[in-house]
Design brief:
alpha/beta, 3-stranded antiparallel beta sheet, 41% helix
Length: 544
């Protein structure tokens, strides 16, 4: 191991809490190959330091005025490629999310100065998370794509790029956004199809584990010295705090927060968090389907165990009241950040919001790690459990990106305007701000892992090392559970949510019956799309 990597791992607390308490630790380090190494103490870049001071950590949630200010300060790259007023008369339609008043709301602010400088106008289509998949799929299925720019995740690339609905990225855009700065797992083939590049990445999604440090330690209400590192102990901790009071708020104490309500397909990722530890064997890249047949694995013993874990929490009354109506947005923003519950898996929003959002009360007591592992792992090749611990962080969604559709392909002025707007949103400097403040996005560039830069902005350095470290450990884990970029993936996820809701409500007799219902529905989707082609694309997405 190179000395620099070793020092980096120690400085970043790679051994903290026994996060990678297995031989996988060494393998993870060897895979880094120089990625995500914090820079040495260098002079702060004036622009980056300036935008990180807007509004400043501890000064409350950013506002539209802050978004506009950041967007204007980062306009230099646009001015180098576009003349003032060059896009006068151009109108573009942008489809994206409005979750938690983030995503499109930030984009509006960031692009205000861009519109003023270029002369273009953007019309916005704002979608709630639960409405996103149906709206996009309807446009794809009916051939009525009515937007020029779309905020979209890599899982949808099979449905869009695979059907010729996207415009290929021009070379000048690649240079403007510095694609080489992306963390390795978000480089090609992610964002590409048939060798062509279509995506400007604005996010680096993976799920990590956030926990309340005041629930653990000597004399704590959980009775545990440290936060759990395995799902079996997560459930035990949740049951241990029942009937006790939250040490921060004085309200009833709760353990892990499972979201039980669907979220337009996105809620399925949270069952995946539990299942990947049981189901993603280190010797097998597949864990959702059999790669040779597309036969679902969602009803094998590993997935049934994950569903049973959740059902045990429901049966044990270990979740807050009315959790059956709590989607992932509720668990993160209305529960965990607001002081309800002690453990959660989520995207990076929990980390960036913990210290910078008005709604957060847990900033001083929150810790982070990769997702919990399991004390056993199912081997689908031998159809048997193996009694050994297993970690498999869930690379949930492969991050949001900005894509340009083929509606602009025949109009060079409009095409350049669309790509210029997308490039502004995916710029290297503006991305640092979105990683550090509430935005709906999490770190995704190597340059985001300069801890001193975050500390200079007002972040506690120990917090930053813990939060960013959990992302780095997940991105680089040798047994990471990778998201498949295949057509219809959210059809699979959405129907799984529907069946899980029935199971959690007691409409199915068991976890196995619930899992069997999901598998049967998945088989129908595969047959509808075309099994042979799905097998081909699924293998390709797994690098097989």
């Amino acid at each position: 191991m190179k000395t620099g990597l070793y020092e980096y791992a120690v400085r970043r607390g790679m051994t903290r809490r026994g996060v990678l308490q297995s031989a996988a630790s060494v393998a993870a380090l060897s895979m880094m190959g120089g990625a995500l190494k914090p820079k040495a103490a260098l002079a702060q870049d004036d622009l980056r330091a300036q935008i990180l001071a807007i509004p400043g950590v501890g000064n409350g949630s950013p506002t539209d005025a802050d978004w506009q200010k950041v967007g204007e300060l980062c306009l230099g790259a646009t001015k180098a490629n576009v003349a003032e007023g060059e896009f006068a008369g151009v109108e573009l339609t942008f489809l994206g999310l409005n979750n938690q008043n983030l995503h499109n709301f930030l984009f509006r602010g960031f692009l205000t100065s861009w519109e003023k400088y270029t002369g273009a106008k953007i019309n916005w289509v704002d979608l709630a998370q639960a409405d996103y998949n149906p709206r996009l799929q309807q446009a794809i299925a009916t051939g009525t794509v009515d937007f020029d720019i779309v905020e979209m995740g890599a899982p949808f690339e099979g449905d869009t790029a695979g059907k010729g609905l996207l415009d290929e990225m021009p070379d000048w855009v690649k240079a403007q956004i510095d694609m080489d700065d992306y963390v390795n797992y978000l480089k090609a083939p992610v964002g590409t199809w048939d060798g062509k590049t279509y995506r400007i990445t604005v996010d680096g999604d993976c799920h990590t584990f956030a926990y309340r440090k005041d629930y653990f330690g000597e004399g704590s209400i959980s009775g545990m010295a440290e936060a759990p590192t395995h799902w079996e102990d997560v459930n035990a901790a949740s049951l241990a705090v029942l009937g006790k009071n939250d040490p921060l708020t004085g309200a009833p104490a709760f353990g892990f927060l499972d979201p039980l309500k669907g979220w337009g397909g996105f809620g399925f990722y949270f069952l995946e968090d539990r299942a990947s530890a049981y189901a993603k064997h280190p010797d097998d890249p597949a864990w959702l389907f059999d790669p040779d047949t597309m036969k679902p694995r969602v009803n094998n013993p590993a997935w049934v165990q994950a569903i049973q874990d959740v059902m045990d929490m429901i049966k044990g009354n270990a979740l807050p009241p009315d959790q059956i109506n709590a989607d992932p947005g509720t668990t993160a923003f209305q529960q965990f950040l607001a002081g309800t519950g002690s453990m959660i898996t989520w995207w990076g929003d929990v980390g960036s919001n913990a210290k910078t959002s008005d709604s957060s009360v847990i900033g001083d007591v929150v810790g982070f790690s990769i997702n919990p592992g399991a004390k056993k792992v199912y081997n689908s090749k031998t159809s048997a459990w193996e009694e050994k611990e297993n970690f498999a962080p869930n690379m949930a969604y492969l991050g949001w990106g900005i894509y340009v559709t083929n509606r602009v392909s025949g109009d060079e002025k409009k095409r350049k305007a669309a790509w210029s707007a997308a490039a502004h949103l995916g710029g290297k400097d503006i991305s640092l701000w979105t990683a550090a403040y509430p935005s709906g996005f999490q770190p995704y560039r190597n340059s985001h892992f300069n801890y001193d830069e975050w500390a200079a902005a007002g972040y506690d350095k120990a917090f930053v090392e813990d939060y960013l470290g959990s992302n780095a450990d997940s991105y680089n884990h040798p047994n990471a559970a990778i998201e498949p970029r295949i057509p219809g993936i959210f059809q699979y996820y959405s129907v799984a949510e529907d069946e899980l809701a029935k199971g959690f409500a007691g409409q199915y007799a068991s976890a196995q019956e619930t899992a069997d219902a999901i598998a049967a529905a998945w088989e129908k989707i595969t047959d509808q799309i075309g099994r042979d082609n799905q097998v081909k694309l699924y293998k390709a997405s797994l690098g097989m």
